[in-house]
Amino acid sequence: MAAYVRRMHHVSLHVSNVDKLANDLSNKFKFNLFATRLTERTRQLAFRTGSAVFVVNERANRGDCGRLNVEPQPPEHHQAAGCLYDIPSRHPVDTACNVCFEVDDVHGSYEALRRMGCSFPDHQGQVTYAVLRSVVGNVCHTLIDKSEYLGSFLPGFLETEGGQEKQNRPEAVTHVDHITYACATGTSQQVLSWYQQLFGFQRFFIHNDETDSGFVINQKGIGLRLSAMEYWKCGESGLSLPGARQNEPGCKFVLAESLPDQSNQVNTFLEEHQAAGVQHIGLYTGDIVEAVRGMTDAGVCFFSPPPAYYTELGKLREIEDAGQDAQKLAQHGVLLDADPQYLLQVFTKPLFVEDTFFLELIERQGSSGFGEGNIRALWRSVQVYMD
Ligand SMILES: O=C(O)C(=O)Cc1ccc(O)cc1
Ligand SMILES: [Fe+2]
Question: What domains are defined for the chain?
Answer without folding.
Answer: 5-167 (3.10.180.10), 173-386 (3.10.180.10)
